[in-house]
Amino acid sequence: MFALPPDDHRFPQVMPRQSSTLRDEIKQTRPFRSTAEEVVVSILRTAAVVQRHLAQVVEAQGITIQQYNVLRILRGAGDAGLPTLAIRDRMVEEAAGITRLLDKLESAGHVVRERSTPDRRQVLCHITPSGVSVIAALDQRMDAANQRSSSMLDDAERHQLVELLGAVRAAHAERTDDRGQGSRRGGQPPR
Fold it and tell me: 60 is in which domain, residue-wise?
């Protein structure tokens, strides 16, 4: 068996580990009150760092990370489009102002909205060719940014991280409202 030269770009290289301690990063001098607190702060800090990096990528096309997310969702929906609330429910980050977000995308010519024929109360959203063009122009740069964000992990570690983060989200999937009844995002009862 032969070894590939280190500069062979056909195979992605795992970057050397560089880990920063969270306390140093946020300039915290005291220990965390618990490992649970450290986990939560670490997740939030990591999400913020990755989101800032991705926001810089999409801003090159004159959109925000939330607008990119809407365009990505609508591109995936295809010709059928999606109702406004379905878009809101699929967002990575909750968007309370989904109507305002869609207003901006529509005025930029990236999205069109139309009333549904069977139910006039429902508004269907569709991505326009302009919106497809914007998101397509970002595909390679977003792929590279996504790779960079986890390049220090091998595939097994990436899968493990995805599973662990999924477990954290699952713990929050069913929330308890003030009356002690389980509820889900969007007010839907748990299944």
Answer: 34-144
Q: Rounded CA gap, 140 and 46, in Å?
A: 22
Task: Give, as one character, the DSSP assignment of residue 9.
Answer: T
Q: Measured between alpha carbons, how far is 49 from 67 in angstroms, rounded to an integer?
A: 19
| pLDDT higher than threshold 60 for residue 5 | no
Q: Enumerate the H helices of 84-154 as residue ranges.
A: 84-90, 98-107, 129-149
Residue 183 placed within a domain = no
Residue 85 placed within a domain = yes
Give the tens place of pLDDT for each residue, 54-105: 999 999 899 999 999 999 999 999 999 999 989 999 998 887 789 999 999 9
Neighbouring residues of 122: CB distance < 8 A, sequence distance ≥ 6:
83, 115, 116
Percent with pLDDT over 90 in the chain: 53
Tokens of residue 150, six digits: 């986890």
Question: 116 near 122, Cβ under 8 Å?
Answer: yes
Q: How many domains does the chain have?
A: 1
Q: What is the pLDDT of residues 123-146, one digit of tens each?
A: 899 999 999 999 999 999 999 999
Whether 48 maps to a domain, the answer reads yes
Measured between alpha carbons, how far is 164 from 38 in angstroms, rounded to an integer? 15
Question: From the centroid of its chain, how far is CA 33?
Answer: 29
What is the rounded CA–CA span in Å between residue 119 and residue 123? 9
CATH assignment at residue 60:
1.10.10.10
